[in-house]
Predict the 3D structure of the following.
Amino acid sequence: MGSLMVDILPEESPVAKLGDTKIVDVKTEEVNVETKSVDSGYVEGSKFEYTIIEEPSRSKRKLRIICVGAGASAINFAHEVEQSELDLDLVCYEKNPQIGGTWYENKYPGCGCDIPSVNYQLTWAPSADWSSFYSSASEILAYFQGVAEKHGLTKYFKVNHRVIGAYWQEDEKMWLLKIQRGDNLEDIIEDKCHVFINATGVLNKWKWPAIKGLETFQGAKLHSANWDDTVELEGKRVGVIGCGSSAVQIVPSIQPIVGDMKCFIRSPGWVTAGFGQRFAGKGGSNFKYSELQRYILANDPKKYLAYRKKIESELNSRFRFILNGSTEQQEAREAAAEDMRRKLAKKPEIADTIIPKNFAVGCRRPTPGNGYLEALCEDNVTVVSQSIQEITPKGIRTADGEEHEFDIIVCATGFDVSWKPAYPTIGRENRSLSDEWKDIPNTYLSVTVPHFPNYLIFNGPFGPYGHGSFLPITEHLGRHFIKILDKMSSEGVASFEPKEEAVADFIQHRRQFLPRTAWSSPCRSWFKGGTVDGEIMMWPGSRIHFFETMENPRWEDYNLTYTTANRFGYFGNGFAAREFDGRDLSWYLGLLDGDEMQQAFPDEEFAEFLTQL
């Protein structure tokens, strides 16, 4: 049964602004807290004074956000902030002189992406300018820098600013950061924020291999992640250490120009075509987009989207071959072995060295290497399977005692994959994140860490990195983080950190699930911290599984403190913010023409219904 109400309204309903509200004196009530819960930030048994805040409910407070990094995650998050209705003050500190992240840092010959170009782009910034199916590093860098410029995001970035320390301030519920400007070790500034975001990624701290005598080599030393273009390769004797994703791109790129090259391969690995190879060229090779294809990308957005979705759907289906014992896994292994042997037919003995015998495709991220296996078979290339004993002034000595002399040694040996931050990160109770992660970098769902409040990680430990494009992952996380910031801003949350029991449950589940996957087989992988049998730092499921899980924050898994002494302090003065900020006062009936603002509704427009006036 309906209710009968009589409203007495003025001729026009006034719409005030938030600025019109005034704080008035309110009687304070003293409350004795006798609670055993500390989720609200209260101290057990303490007394506090609670005063109503004379503002409408959910009046969004301003938040200061500091992000470290200027790669794809930071650029995407800057766009989220730019589009958000929240009052967010964002700054992204970047150690390099340009934005672009890994695509700025990696400049080695042949550097490119193993994901098709049209799927390695932000969903809100599709490009019709891709020149080929797989893109080079320089083209991808130009894309991200162009996106930041076009969408007005460069204002959020401060380059040549290196974060050298981050310290949680419990009394203020803020992070204090120390930042070095430029190369001057004495030029240190400080900055504070409510929320600190790590967007540096794991493949960020490159390192020289731990090989005896490395510093004694008298020739040129190159690292894939710190390439020196001034070193002349033509006609030189070159040794390449490593057989991972950078090595398989470097070797075929420099093979035609070097004089003699030896590749030191200590462990086998699956070398495949790139992701989405069914849509690539012959044998999974790269190809240039034709004029017709580029015309479609530029002028038929519906078909362009369908093309992207077709490829992406196949990438998402690849999780099945990760599962041990699956038909898809067996088929993938047989197909990869056959393809590798075919490409190594000129030197079949190499196949016995590098084709894995005891781990499945996907144990580590498959290494797309168009032209790599063929390059190993060229006359000026030799594969050395003996382990390296030491590096000498003239070259490399292997375990069999032979000294291989070189003009140049290329170390395609990767990164520090410990996940430990490159600077002190100190949380509650003076806890160091490096110490907390000295054995295993445990996280809550890859994004937060106990005892490190208001600390968010893009693509942290135990995320879904084994298959498909990284960009949809970071976009989902960007939206997830905005929802966290919305609650902080709207509901007076001062700090959040995951509960230890939630992290423990996540550990228990993933440790029971991950042995079902190829990631658990005995290969050396950064998925396992660069070890053969270490903790598997992967999401316990598919990318789609991750996307749906991270749709909304699970606040029941967090400890919260508040900006007032009452968790409902944000209720304010009894009014809702929309009663003052001009938004529709009857939005729940539906919007007129999609307009979310309150409309005037003059009486003359409703004369036929107001005949009694």
Notes: Residues 391 and 566 are 65 Å apart (CA to CA).
